[in-house]
Write a structure and sequence with these properties.
The protein is α/β, with parallel strands linked by helices. The chain has helices spanning about 5, 25-35, 60-75, 85-100, 110-130, 160-165, 175-185, 190, 210-215, 300, 375-380; strands spanning about 15-20, 40-45, 80-85, 135, 165-170, 220-225, 230-235, 255-265, 270-275, 280-290, 305-310, 320-325, 340-350, 355-360, 365-375.
């Protein structure tokens, strides 16, 4: 929600907003803008990951970030509270993510964190403990952000509409450069030089493979070609995802092989040569647990296909698609279980449990989990269009 809408019926000082302070430039400028508008602003620093799980160099990033957030809030003369969701994060985000990795899937913990922690538990806590009218956060915005490289509407695609109505996005319309300029003008040049915390939310900048190995002991298996030929050994399936380059020790063509399939039963990874191999391309996917932020679109309620755009992955470009509700046994179209087939012209295949988001223009309609990709061009014996490029 925009700040102007939040002020439509009350004076700014009568509207309490709790800003999720991360110690970074985006949340700091968010608090600054709301303070300038006259809102009753408070800061809250969320601790979701046990600080004893320090990074690989022995530093606890949480302590550093909290100190930075405290410094900003002191300058703005607003209170800062530390709120912990360590236990909830472990049960609602981390454990399901590890279970998905172990099953050979590729989950998106950041989307789960937004849905289960930031826009559910954090919102409810701010309402009950601090009597907040709204929460606010940096960057995240339901519409595509002004800065395409920092747009995070994809991460909101599985969040409820009710939660978003209680959330303000003061910097969502700004580019990263504009946000940094505002920080410098406020005397916070040091914040603009701070390294981004981007990365999987509970891993951060740590080595992903080594981190997961701590919780899912790797089991060696074999790489196979599409015809079943054994090409070499792998060190564990969790180290690979569909579409990723696979380097097989001792093979001269290792830099040309890509993962096209994984089998948990056989602990095998199937690879093919070339990033544009037909086994890596598909024209459909199947999604479940789809959540529509403002309710199911009319076309789908009528059992018809919805023309929109889909996006898989934060930085991948959206593309046109047709979303169709799957047919139950009685032949009647239904979306009761949020099951859909997504048809498009051509795209790289996707890994199960990645998130697919749906858009109409700049507006995020919602999103869900990918259950599986449709048949590949290889499976369909379908020629790859001459115009296709990665």
């Amino acid at each position: 929600m925009a700040a102007d809408e939040a002020l439509s019926s009350r004076a700014p000082g009568q509207v309490r907003v709790v800003v999720g302070m991360s110690g970074g430039v985006d949340s700091s400028v968010t608090a600054l803008l709301l303070k300038r508008r006259g809102f009753d602003v408070r800061g809250a620093y969320m601790l979701n990951w046990d600080p004893q799980e320090e990074d690989e160099h022995g530093r606890c990033r949480a302590d550093e970030d909290f100190a930075d957030a405290k410094k900003i809030c002191t300058q703005l003369q607003i209170p800062l509270h530390k709120v912990e969701f360590i236990r909830e994060y472990w049960s609602d985000v981390f454990t399901p993510s590890m279970a998905a990795y172990e099953a050979g899937h590729t989950p998106n913990p950041d989307v789960m964190c937004n849905r289960e922690i930031k826009f559910k538990r954090f919102l409810h806590l701010c309402q009950s403990r601090f009597q907040a009218d709204y929460i606010a956060t940096g960057r995240l915005y339901l519409m595509r952000g002004a800065d395409a490289t920092k747009d995070q509407s994809y991460f909101l695609s599985n969040t409820t509409g009710d939660a978003l109505k209680r959330t303000l996005f003061p910097v969502g319309h700004l580019t990263k450069t504009e946000v940094k300029e505002m920080a410098k003008e406020a005397g916070w040049g040091w914040l603009t030089e701070k390294k981004s915390s981007a990365g999987i939310c509970f891993i951060g900048k740590r080595n992903f493979s080594r981190f997961v190995d701590k919780y899912i002991p790797p089991t060696a298996g074999f790489f196979h070609s599409l015809d079943g030929t054994v090409l070499g050994k792998h060190e564990g399936m969790t180290k690979y995802t569909i579409g990723q380059r696979a380097r097989i020790p001792g093979r001269l063509d290792a830099n040309k092989l890509y993962v096209v399939d994984k089998s948990v039963e056989n602990n095998s990874v199937t690879v093919a040569e070339g990033a544009d191999h037909p086994a890596l391309l598909t024209d459909s996917l199947y999604a479940s647990d789809v959540h529509w932020i403002s309710g199911t679109p009319q076309a789908l309620r009528a059992g018809e296909a919805l023309a929109c755009e889909y996006q898989v992955g934060h930085l991948r470009a959206p593309a046109p698609c047709q979303v169709e509700p799957l047919q139950p046994a009685n032949g009647e179209a239904t979306d009761a279980a949020g099951q859909y087939r997504v048809q498009f012209s051509i795209d790289r295949t996707v890994a199960p449990h990645q998130v697919v988001a749906f858009y109409q223009g700049q507006l995020c309609l919602g999103g869900g989990l990918i259950q599986k990709a449709g048949p590949s061009y290889w499976d369909q014996h379908k020629p790859v269009p001459a115009h296709w490029t990665i």
